[in-house]
C-alpha cells in the first residue's frame, strides 16, 4: 500500500504535462484554459458547473464556478471521490490523505481510502446493522471502512476504530496496525496494555508488565476466538490444542479453573496465601491443572511428557525456588497425580503435586488390591528425608503407631498386604525398575528384588521368592562378617478392641543364634569326647518359621555342616534347622 502511495502522491511533471496536453487537444470541442484553470463549454456555449465531464478514459469534475477541480476529496450524493493532481478521478487505487486532526491523541497522520472502478470510495453502508463488520476484499485481503470512506485499522467495532484502553478486550475484529488495515485471520501477535492482576492466574510471574505482546487467533471470518468470563475456550488449530481467555488472549503456561484457585473460599480466619497453599497437594486439585507451553508456542501438551516450573497455584514453594519437574498430561490435558501409570509399557509414579517420582520411595496406596491410586504424599523415610543408611530404611519397615497401648498403624502390616509399596523409579526417564536391582542406601549398596509382572509390577517383593527372603524388595542376607544368618518369620495378628481393626501380616526379622537356641532348642547336650555342645530344635511355635540363609541370601535347603564364622555348625533338612553344634 505504501508503494502505491508514492505513485499517487508524487505524480511526475511529465505526467502532468501529458494530462494538460490531452485536455488542450479537446479545447475546440469545449475545453478552454482560463483564469489559470480549465473550463468546459457545451456546444451551446454554456459553461458546465457541478457536473462530470469525460475526457478520453478519465472523468473530471467541474466545480460550482465551472473550473476543473483537482487534488481534493469530493462528496457527491453521500459518495466520496478523489480528484488527482491532474484533475482525473481516482479509481481502482489506494489514496492516502493527510488527517487534519493528526495533532490530536490517537489520530493517524494520514487516512487511507480505496476508490473503486466507478471512482466511489469504499465506505460502510448506511444500512449496516449495529455491531456488524462490512469488509471489502482488495488484492486478496479484506479491509473495512467507516461511513466517510476512511480505512479503519486496529480494533474495530460498530464501523468505528476503537481507541479506548479496553478496546482489545471488547472488540472481536482486528485490522492490523496503522498503515496496514488488513483484517486479521489466523494467528497474530498484538501489543496490548493490560493489568497483570487481570490474568486468569495472577501473580504467576509470567506477565508482570502492563505492556505486553499477546497472541490472538482469528477465524476465517476475522472474529476473535475468546472464552467466557472466567472460563477458557479450547480450540484445535493445526492438530494442536490451544486455550483462550475471555479477552481472546492465548493462554500460556499453567491454567486451572479460576473457581478452583480462588483464595478466599476456605478459612476466612487465615490469609489468602495460607488458604492458597492449604489446598495444594490434593490430587483432585492437582489434576485440574493444564499446561499450555511457553508464550511463544502456547500449544497444550496433550497426552505427553513435559518439564516446567510449577505454578504458584500448583506448588508455591517450588515455584518460588524456580525448580523444574517432569509431568505427564492425559488426553484432556490434565495432570496425572497421586497414581502409578503404565506409559509405553513402563510404570511411572506421580506424586500429589503431579511431579514424576524418582529414586527409591514408599507409597501408601488406596487399597491392597489392584489399585494404582496413591492416597498419601509420597516420602522416603518416615520424616520425608532420603534414606541415609540401612538403619533408616529398617526404621520405616518396622514403624508402628500405638495409641493407648493399642496398635493403630503398622507399616509392616501394610507392606506385607501391599497397601504400602516400595518402588525404585530409576530406570529410563525415571520408570520403575523390575527384577534384581542394586540400590544405594546412603554410601552402601544393597540387592533388591522388584515384581516384574501383574498389578504389583515394579513394587518390592515381600516374603519368599525364588529361594530367597525379601522385605519390601530388600534381600535379607547375613552381615558382611558372617556366613549365615537365621531369619524368623512370624504370622502376626493383633486387633484393636476399640476399632476392631485387625492387623495381620508376616514379619521377617534377623535373629541372633543365642535367641534362637533359647526360643526353640533344648538346654544343650555336651559331648566330652568331641568337646562340643549340641542344641536340638524341640519346639515348633505356631505361626513361626525359621530359615537359615547363606552368604548370597539363598535359603539353605539341606546341609549337615553349615559352619558360621562364630563356630556355630547348623544342620538343615528341607529348609528346617534341625540342630546347632558348637565346639568348646
Write up what this structure looks like.
This protein has 584 residues and is mainly beta. Helices cover 11% and strands 35% of the residues. The protein is built from ten helices and 40 strands. A five-stranded antiparallel sheet has the order 35-36-40-39-38, with helices on one face. A three-stranded antiparallel sheet has the order 12-11-13, with no helix packed on it. Strand 9 and strand 10 form a beta hairpin. The radius of gyration is 43 Å and the shape is rod-shaped. The N and C termini lie far apart (111 Å). Residues 1-27 form the signal peptide.
Shape descriptor reads: rod-shaped
Portion of residues in beta strands equals 25-35%
Structural class: mainly beta
Largest sheet: 5 strands, antiparallel
Q: What is the percent of helical residues? A: 10-25%
Strand order of the largest sheet: 35-36-40-39-38
Q: Catalogue the unreliable spans.
A: 1-17, 263-268
Topology, number of strands: 40
Average pLDDT over all residues:
86
Number of helices, counting only DSSP H or I runs of 4 residues or more: 10
Radius of gyration: 43 Å
Distance between the termini: 111 Å
